[in-house]
Amino acid sequence: METRRITYTPQGGVCSKLMVIDAKEDVIENVQIVGGCHGNGQGMCALLKGMRIEDACHGRGTSCPDQMAQALKQFNR
Known about the structure:
The structure is a single chain. This protein is of the alpha+beta class. It is built from three helices and three strands, in the order E-E-E-H-H-H. The chain has helices at about 40-50, 55, 65-70, and strands at about 5-10, 15-25, 25-35. It has a three-stranded antiparallel beta sheet. The longest helix has 11 residues, at about 40-50. It is globular.
């Protein structure tokens, strides 16, 4: 199976402007967050790399991690 890429524009007033996610099958290969809190974005990207999409898809409101969960759900569409 080939690597898929989604580009997601966060909603809900978060400071990140764009999320780009690459995944192969159900495993996250790479994540890039444009804008937002640099340290938090770097940490989230590092934590998500190698995770299964299903395991990373639990958001809790209007935050960058929640918006990442919304973006990851697009892989199931």
